[in-house]
């Protein structure tokens, strides 16, 4: 089964976690529910595209199927990968991160890109960064849930982003991860 599914974004329990303890207050409180959704959607897209543009990757479009699946996974508050179980066998890429305190969308996506320093094109590894900039992954859906007791008794904002077509396909890094920018 695994052989037919590309390697998903690699994640370990420590990877991408930040803990800066502070109260999580309501945000966007002056906006309507629809405005909040649109704003968040655009922030997820912008946070990816503003990195992708430096890696010769096209801008992404929002996919509600992915966003709904990301939401259902985030709502479980299991801080671990869904391992390809969300879309009835359709493969997808996935990045997850949880952070306590004020941990907004741009903060979360920025965590994914920290892996860039680890990337060596002559010996490609597959991580959050490579999924963010993967050229062939052009559709995005993300969600966030505030989960209790993630860091001890401290709650965290748990972000799940799903990518389609999936990135981090072993053997395809050289044509999908461009590191020559800037
Ligand atoms: C959105 O994502 C789903 C799941 O990966 C995929 O099946 C569907 O084709 C995508 N929608 C569009 C418009 O491409």
Automatic annotation (TrEMBL):
Please state what the protein is called: SCP domain-containing protein
Q: Name the source's superkingdom.
A: Eukaryota
The record's section on SUPFAM superfamilies has:
PR-1-like (SSF55797)
Q: Could you tell me which residue ranges the SCP domain spans?
A: 39-171
Coiled-coil ranges per the record? none
Concerning Pfam families, the annotation shows:
CAP
The protein's UniProt keywords, in alphabetical order, are: Signal
Claim: Signal is one of the keywords in the record: yes
What InterPro entries has UniProt attached to this entry? CAP_dom, CAP_sf, CRISP-related
Q: What is the lineage of its organism?
A: Eukaryota, Fungi, Dikarya, Basidiomycota, Agaricomycotina
Give start-end of the signal peptide. Answer: 1-23
